Structures are given as structure tokens and as C-alpha cells.
């Protein structure tokens, strides 16, 4: 529980910040949303419940989950106990070890337009449930073995990103450009950890 809940949330936050450094326009839109939320509630401490209601912040987190799902292969070592007939006609025979390649689904051009482009707006145009209700984007799995920490994970990452983006502007370091190469360890990590400058915002 502790292991599954720590690296995933830390890695997702790192991926979000990397995308925000690479996409300054998205970063500015997010900061505008956070500034206006802070002005509305009269404090810079955005409560968890409030953060969950910021549409652009949620869209940024969802788009990062789509591009960089921390758990790209779902269902490690699940065994089919009987023949399973899929809707496309394929059969998974009994006693087969099966995994779902969620990374492939979230990068499939027949499922997502411009799948390699960071476009949080796609989640403003359509409400996509990332908690297991929509198999186009199920970064927490789905069904009986769905991640039990999905709500905690989502609110934690949104909260961290909100704080980081509200308090600082994040800019690339020319000598260490952001590199989105991935490496699959127990989770999907940045091959070259993020390096960026945090400039305090006034
Ligand atoms: C952004 C954060 C997170 C992501 C992306 C994530 C993703 C996942 C994925 C993909 C699975 C496997 C689902 C499957 O095999 O079908 C999983 C399982 C699991 N997660 Fe998470 N998780 C996150 C946060 C958390 C947190 C915060 C906790 C606990 C506090 C947690 C605890 C677990 C546990 C215990 C399992 C195993 C469930 C089982 O096998 O029945 N996760 N998670």
C-alpha cells in the first residue's frame, strides 16, 4: 500500500511539471485559474475539495495520466481461469497470463486524436472518467482490482501541482532540457529526472 501510493503520486507530479515546463501556455492558463481561485476564496491555501473543482487543473492531470500513465501495464500476472471470448472475436484461452497495455491504448491514434500532443483541452471538451469507468483511459485499472488509492492519488497530485504552479513559475534550464524519455521500472519513470528553475511568483 505504501509503495504503490508513493512512487506513483511522486512520478505523476514530476510528469505534470515536465509537461508544464515544455508547455508554457498551458502553465500560464493553469496559473490564471489558480490565481482566480485563490482570489475567490481569499487565501492562497487551496483546500483539497476546492482543488478538485478546478477544471483546467483536472484536465492537466488527466492529460498527463494519458501521456505518461505511471502504471502502463495493468493487471500484472493475472491468470484467466476459463476461456474468455473478446468482442473482437479473439479468445484468451484458460490459464493464460494476461496484461492490459494501457500505454498502447492511451497512445492509439484510433482512440485519441493527436495522441502524442499534450492537449489538456481535450478533457474540457469531453468529460472522461479516469477512475475506471472509461476504458480509453483507465490509468488506475478497472473492475475488482482497480487501484484502491485512486481518489487519494488524484487529489494528492492535483494539490501538489496546484501549490507548485501557484507559487512558482517553472522554466527550463537550457543546459538540462526536459527529456520526456520513459523508463519502465516498477512504475513508468522519467529516464532523465526533471530539472527546471522555480522562479517565485509575486
Ligand atoms: C496517481 C497515483 C496512482 C496511480 C496512477 C495508481 C495506479 C495503479 C494501477 C495501474 C494499479 C494496478 C491496477 C490493475 O492491476 O488493474 C494500482 C494498484 C494498486 N494501487 Fe494504485 N495508483 C496510484 C495511487 C495509489 C495510492 C495513493 C495508493 C494507496 C494509498 C495505491 C494503492 C494501490 C494498491 C494497494 C494496489 C493493488 C490493488 C490490487 O492488486 O488489488 N495506489 N494502482
From TrEMBL:
Pfam families: p450. Heme binds at residue 147. Gene3D superfamilies: Cytochrome P450. Keywords: Heme, Iron, Metal-binding, Monooxygenase, Oxidoreductase. PROSITE patterns: CYTOCHROME_P450. One of its GO terms (molecular function) is heme binding. It comes from the Eukaryota. Belongs to the cytochrome P450 family. This is Cytochrome p450. It comes from Trapa natans (Water chestnut). The lineage of its organism: Eukaryota, Viridiplantae, Streptophyta, Embryophyta, Tracheophyta.
Amino acid at each position: 500500500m505504501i509503495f504503490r501510493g508513493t512512487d506513483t503520486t511522486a512520478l505523476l507530479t514530476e510528469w505534470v511539471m515536465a509537461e508544464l515546463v515544455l508547455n508554457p501556455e498551458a502553465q500560464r492558463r493553469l496559473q490564471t485559474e489558480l490565481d482566480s481561485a485563490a482570489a475567490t476564496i481569499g487565501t492562497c491555501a487551496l483546500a483539497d475539495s476546492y482543488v478538485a473543482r478546478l477544471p483546467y487543473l483536472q484536465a492537466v492531470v488527466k492529460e498527463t495520466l494519458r501521456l505518461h500513465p505511471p502504471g502502463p501495464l495493468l493487471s500484472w500476472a493475472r491468470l484467466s481461469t476459463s476461456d474468455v471470448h473478446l468482442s473482437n472475436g479473439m479468445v484468451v484461452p484458460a490459464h493464460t497470463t494476461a496484461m492490459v497495455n494501457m500505454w498502447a491504448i492511451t497512445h492509439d491514434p484510433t482512440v485519441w486524436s493527436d495522441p502524442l500532443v499534450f492537449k489538456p483541452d481535450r478533457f474540457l471538451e469531453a468529460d472522461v472518467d479516469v477512475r475506471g469507468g472509461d476504458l480509453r483511459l483507465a490509468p488506475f485499472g478497472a473492475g475488482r482490482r482497480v487501484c484502491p488509492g485512486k481518489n487519494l492519488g488524484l487529489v494528492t497530485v492535483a494539490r501538489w501541482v496546484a501549490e507548485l504552479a501557484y507559487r512558482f513559475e517553472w522554466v527550463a534550464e537550457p543546459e538540462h532540457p526536459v527529456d520526456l524519455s520513459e523508463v519502465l521500472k516498477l512504475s513508468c519513470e522519467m529516464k532523465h529526472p526533471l530539472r527546471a528553475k522555480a522562479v517565485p511568483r509575486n
